[in-house]
Amino acid sequence: MTPAELDQWSDHGLVVVENALSRWISPEAPAGLGEAMRYAVLDGGKRLRPLLVLAAREAVAHGTTDAALDEAALRAACAVELIHAYSLVHDDMPCMDNDVLRRGKPTVHVQFGEAQALLAGDALQALAFALLTPADTTIPDGVQARLCRLLAAAAGHAGMAGGQAIDLASVGRALTEDQLRHMHRLKTGALLEGSVMMGAACGAATQQVWIGLQRYGQALGLAFQVVDDILDVIADSATLGKTAGKDAANDKPTYVSLLGLEEAKSYAQSLLREALDALHSTGLTHTQTLAALAERVVNRNT
Amino acid sequence: MTPAELDQWSDHGLVVVENALSRWISPEAPAGLGEAMRYAVLDGGKRLRPLLVLAAREAVAHGTTDAALDEAALRAACAVELIHAYSLVHDDMPCMDNDVLRRGKPTVHVQFGEAQALLAGDALQALAFALLTPADTTIPDGVQARLCRLLAAAAGHAGMAGGQAIDLASVGRALTEDQLRHMHRLKTGALLEGSVMMGAACGAATQQVWIGLQRYGQALGLAFQVVDDILDVIADSATLGKTAGKDAANDKPTYVSLLGLEEAKSYAQSLLREALDALHSTGLTHTQTLAALAERVVNRNT
Hints:
The structure is a homodimer.
Chain A: H1 3-24, H2 33-41, H3 48-61, H4 67-91, E1 101-102, E2 105-106, H5 108-112, H6 114-132, H7 141-155, H8 160-170, H9 177-201, H10 207-234, H11 237-240, H12 246-249, H13 255-259, H14 261-282, H15 288-299
Antiparallel strand pairs in A: 1-2
């Protein structure tokens, strides 16, 4: 798949995801809560996690369509994005990173106040699980339950939230590469890997496929973070749409501070090879979008 | 059921729930997160919501046992308690109620810092959904999905989180009784009603049973809040285990400020009659524990 073909695929996916998010995050939630939730999620973000869900669904669908499983994948795509968005809202708050800029806009607590930001994040997490379990649907119960299981594990103490706790505790401390990898595997890796696995859960995946896609998700998740650390050093705030140079300013351990810039870049490339190799190991024939997404993650500028 | 019989029933239920919570909230979550999560949940609280789940399960079980559905009910009982506990952690934070005392102990952010309190609350919400969707289980997929659906709705923007947003927006404002009822129906009512419905989802409930139990849950939820408002006025902090007189100090609208003390008491009694009438309407024969719980909620001193 060429970069132009990936653009075409992702442009289509983004429209579908954006429309679904806008439909499913009701502006009618009371007392301004809906407004804060929509502000936190809509009209911004690269939507990498939703695209991973859709690409993984495509890989296990073998070129077929199924209305119920396609709907499940779209719901899963939106649910992971809600989890990602809520984590950014809470992470930006004064008691955490105290950041005022996100995607070029004031952060949610700057715009709506801290209390509303806290509640909006909480409500977005609940909404993620509501999206996965609609009442009137033909999505099989087993798929609904499995999606909830995967998302809860990726978001919780053994995933994203646990990684953030390690991150908190590690500011100003020297970490080994193993410790840094463990932190990122939870903090950002778990939800990226979870996105791939949720897409895979919207279809029939053999054990071999499941293991291969998991390995792909893990390599991609780690590569994402290595590249994030590189961009924090070499890009500027305007390009990133968020404050650059933040890690060094906050004395946070990164792959660049640990490995040096050149070795971090070469590590990212080796993780890309690992991800592509893992895709190959599944034996699936519709993995070209997953492969192109991994290449984009590693070779991105923002 | 006599008060002594209810004590015996609830003493047993509390031991089972307490042990399960302790088993399922791993102390091994990284970087102190598990410790903060356990502190927030274990060894405290009246566990009204878990008891409602178990009593509702009992009502729809018709005196039979079923290992899978009994496990589902225990998981649901713990999951609603995790949601309740996380809401208290976030609600106590400086940007919300800024409270330092909860169940006679320092609040989570006082004990562990604000950032850890924020993360512990987030991780408890995720864990609630993880508990409902275990990987190795005989709990039917449909029950798992339904429990997630009920919990997500009760916790989210159309339930608890939405009610808290209304609460935030209403400080210092005059509310009508309808507005106050709407706020409480969401803020505390939704999760109490949700507890009853989750118990009912762990069994075969006809439409008549479902509607009756929902009416019971709604009346009980509202009664709980009316009595809470009464106790905030007439009890002291030592008895309550939290700061008394807080509502008046914060200029929050309450049933006592709106109706007066005597009329609030009589309203609580009429809600109790409504709850008991709703139980009767189900035609179920094993509702004596639910009835006794409603009486205890309305006639409690703390």
